[in-house]
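Example record

The entry below shows one chain as it appears in the dataset: sequence first, then structure tokens.
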Amino acid sequence: MRHLLSMADLDRAEILRILDTAVTMHEVQHREVKKLPTLRGRTIINFFFEDSTRTRSSFELAGKWMSADTINLTGKGTSVSKGESLRDTVRTIDAMGVDMMVIRHMASGAPAQIAQWTGCSIVNAGDGTHEHPSQALLDAYTMRARLGDLEGRHVAIVGDLTHSRVLRSNLLCLRSLGARVTLVAPPTLMPSGIGPWSDTDGFATSYELDDVLPSVDAVMMLRVQRERMGGGFFPTAREYAVTYGLTTARLRRLPEHAVICHPGPMNRGLEISGDAADAAQSLVLDQVSAGVAVRMSILYHLLAGEGSDQ
């Protein structure tokens, strides 16, 4: 494995290998000295063309805790802002001898294109509305830590599905791990070509959140991405919250063992209530913690693990 561009790059065995390694990496977070020598001498560039808190910080921590030299770049701080093409910019960085670039870009497919232009490892940290593979891996890690094996588990993914790169990666990941997935959204936010309760692609869909909640093992609420919307997807924020938000009242419809996930950032009071976000069964902060461990595991398998090309 040289790049991580899509969850489609990984088979079930590779996913489990990353998740199992992350268990060991997670122990580092609880040490007084958070440092491993694993990637000493390696150089990783975190190149983010879109704003990020969780993903960028966790990739930076992951690299530093494994003793890699990490450098953070943004589109505004590079020659791209002066008119240089993306191709010339990434080839310039690659020519400096870096080992890896972690890329977040607003254009779907940008990391895959960069992988063709450069000789270093490329990790997709989110590209447009396409994919976000490391997020799907940390989501699976978090649910697995609480629920055990995800084989046969029922996971509902709810909200703004049309604009969600998290959805696409999670579908691939959860199906590889044997989970049963139901997508829930208003018709205007259901991806094109998917109808209610279709099961032609290995997942079910519904427009009725209240019908789905009683049977889930995990519910993943997705952020309403208003910055990607031109308007007209739902009448008002209040109506969306009442119909598709994980409200305080809906918490009572969840099975006692069911867990709540959200990839963040959260719009409290819109797709998720404060009570749900802070409930005992909420794994929101567990996801953040798992993010560092899982990304450490990804870096390890790409740059130092068995089968790496470096």
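Notes for this example: Residues 256 and 281 are 8 Å apart (CA to CA). The two ends are 10 Å apart (CA to CA).
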